[in-house]
């Protein structure tokens, strides 16, 4: 187990330790990122932002693309199908002060695939490279990164398109790639292929490679480092309901016993998360948003089933506090 907290770089952005918050549609908004940063997350990403939507009202940004002065370093992730619109969106992110521009070539959602976005591009290496080049040219000095899956189709054993995209992107000047070790076709089923992640790092020893997939807890994050040699790992579902995972990873890396929050500490963090969300969205939308986080937090609770039901019924701030008072004593 490493006894030091290794730093790593995405272009000129230095990241204090190598466990970062992944882009998570519906979850990695400003309130959740603020909370994760307070637990030690050194780098976060927005959820995927559709290039065209970003540009609709540049002076009144969508909630999902909002950030603030403390929310750095931050990657803005964009998704789209054309080099020109992706480049225009990247330029906007650059102007708005995002530290990194991340390109989503991984999303497996049917609507994205039908519209030739996200994971669709894993099967179109030339388009992927063209978009990467256009975005790098439009991003000023901001580093550009790619989110990839290991292949488009499960039976693409040769991964030929993957290697063409990765090599083309690094040749074009991409600062890092983040690889989710599943194919687009399998979406989220089956185990992520960590051996593939190891082969990617082996092929690009001098480039930044970040691993994603099956990082359920801090132990898994540590195992991914040891088994694959990647430079950083990207926490996704493992951070939902457990923002302590960043602190827990530090404990493991420094040889300490892993921090486990008491019920009372969980209550304090959930109170703060609710406060951040309702301040950001207003009470109605903030409460609606927090219901799905509540369901995730419930998994850590001894009465998880009953607590989930209680969170689903929450309608306002008073209900949220009442659920916390009832279950977290
Ligand atoms: C609810 C949800 C939303 C996601 N949204 C995004 C996204 O907007 N952009 C992206 O690149 N990946 C997204 N992902 C993929 C994750 O970043 C990550 O690569 C994937 O969940 C694998 O990691 P895990 O098995 O540790 O969860 C999403 C995953 C989930 C479960």
- Bound ions, cofactors and other small molecules, one mention each: flavin mononucleotide
Report the end-to-end length measured between terminal Cα atoms: 36 Å
User: Which CATH-level-2 architecture of the largest domain?
Assistant: Alpha-Beta Barrel
CATH class of the largest domain: Alpha Beta
The helix content, as a percent range, equals 40-55%
Main β-sheet, spatial strand arrangement = 3-10-9-8-7-6-5-4
Q: Quaternary state, please? A: single chain
Mean pLDDT: 96
Number of spatially distinct domains: 2
Unreliable stretches (pLDDT < 50, length at least 5) are none
Count of strand segments: 10
What gyration radius follows from the Cα positions, in whole Å?
19 Å
**Could you please say which CATH topology of the largest domain applies here?**
TIM Barrel
Order of helices and strands: EEEHEHEHEHHEHEHEHEHHHHH
Structural class: alpha/beta
Assigned CATH superfamily of the largest domain: Aldolase class I
Question: How can the largest sheet be summarized?
Answer: 8 strands, parallel
Share of β-strand residues: 15-25%
Summarize this, please?
Helices cover 43% and strands 16% of the residues. The chain is α/β, with parallel strands linked by helices. The strands form two sheets. It has an eight-stranded parallel β-sheet.
Question: What can you tell me about this protein's structure?
Answer:
This protein is α/β, with parallel strands linked by helices and 329 residues long. The chain has two domains: 8-253, TIM Barrel; 263-327. It has 13 helices and ten strands. The chain is globular, with a radius of gyration of 19 Å. The two termini are 36 Å apart. The model has no long low-confidence stretch (mean pLDDT 96). Bound molecules: flavin mononucleotide.
